[in-house]
Design a protein that fits this description.
By secondary structure, the protein is mainly alpha-helical. 47% of the residues lie in helices and 10% in strands. The chain has helices at residues 21-37, 55-68, 83-95, 106-119, 182-192, 205-217, 248-253, 258-267, 280-286, 301-314, 317-331, 339-350, 357-363, 365-368, 377-382, 385-399, 406-420, 428-436, 444-451, 453-464; strands at 8-11, 40-45, 77-78, 99-102, 140-143, 150-155, 159-164, 172-174, 197-201, 224-228, 231-232, 297-298. The chain has a three-stranded parallel β-sheet. The chain has a three-stranded antiparallel β-sheet with strand order 4-5-8. The structure holds one RNA strand.
Length: 471
Amino acid sequence: MSDRPSVVTRFAPSPTGYLHIGGARTALFNWLYARHTGGKFLIRVEDTDRERSTPAAVDAIFEGLDWLGLKSDAEPLFQFQQADRHRAAVQQLLDKGRAYRCWMSVEELDIERTKARAEGRAIRSVWRDKDAPANDKPFVVRFKGPLEGETVVEDLVKGPVRFQNKELDDLVLLRSDGAPTYNLAVVVDDHDMGVTHVIRGDDHLNNAARQTLIYQALDFAVPAFAHIPLIHGPDGAKLSKRHGAQAVGEFADMGYLPEAMRNYLARLGWGHGDDEIFSDAQAISWFDVADVGSAPARLDWAKLNHINSHYIRLADDHRLALLTSEAHERLGTALPADGLARLEAAIPLVKEGAATIPELANLTLFALKARPLAPDEKTQGLLTDETRERMQRLTENLAEAGSWAPADLEARLKDFAAQEGVGLGKFGPALRGILSGGSTAPDLASTLAAVGRDEALGRLQDALFKATKTL
RNA sequence: GGUCCCUUCGUCUAUCGGUUAGGACACUAGAUUUUCAAUCUAGGAAGAGGGGUUCGACUCCCCUAGGGACUACCA
């Protein structure tokens, strides 16, 4: 009996840049499927292109996966390190007559390519059936694909996809410098890693047919394929810089929570009835690649915001305070020494109104300002003589408050309004303006309480009594 | 050009031959109101087009149109 888990999935990014949001979703689907089936989720870095692969990109990708909470069940594999194994597989193919050396020059290839294109057929090398001449010129090794018959890719998302073998060209397995190419390496590595389900982007569907042929030539079991559609921008075009963000790091910086990202990304292209908001545990128990939609989905910022605001409400206040303080630093807000404590006091009051962390930063501004607050124009306008005098009476009233608890403050404000014979609208806005310095703030009693007795009375005094008298 | 994939409200989706085509986001109107929100209620909004198959098609088949991928000694 084998102790190998029944399902093994993998995420195989090429380290040529940051972790793209589409790639993140691919990783998420692989992860979900592995978790759902009780299998394993592996990561393989496809760095066979030495020109374009960079260590910085490797770091960026792992950082992105880490942030998203997608951990590999084994040490990540670096494809380039398997090069010897890849070359051995090519030798095997050569020995079996399923591959051949090709001495076509770049120029010759160019000519053949344009010719083949004009004739609407796949390109063929003249060396496919020619004996090797005695020479030491550089050559590549190509796969010798069948010219007849068809290859069917049984795709879990798209259904069976049929390809005529004669349409598939003889792809390069080994470059002239002896380095293996992607199409060979994926097959060998996926086999060696025991991958049973290849879940990857739509853009690989055509390759799947060629790869299937290689699997067969090598006598490897062909894994199940699932080609998931790419994510498009809100306008339906391929996601690009002008859509706001592509890298998962950018989403993090924009104040989205990883759990919100997982929920949103899972919902993009996959669904479970009418469920919109669900936990990781629910996603894992419900997810099946076969249920992934076959059409590309567009990134919808409004919905992402909605889901994120849901998770912000659920999030722990201390965690939010930390994130919000980072956001404030990025925004250039001057944080007082007790900034974190002030944030933690203010966040429960405003978190329901925030869709992202920067919004939370904006909503907590009122609590962080240092005395004396610069009065904004609107508040100045509110302070007619009548209102100013009423506010002075209110300040004196508040100064006598025995309790600074929100409920008591609330009652006190109401009593004061009654005592003055006016509605809250007569002085509420002015009180708010003075307390917040013009920033938005929660309801008045909560704001008073969050700011604290001394600070609140101080702010009132600064605004109302500066030139006249002290309290 | 060739091969392949895709097509339900503005967006994400449900529907797996018989539904008043459902939900969510967004939007609109109203309620609430001490700012900004949030919240509550109500409302408008969809099967790309054309042929078939069938008693009956969003659902199955074909064609067209429109998107997209691949067509590298990139992955």
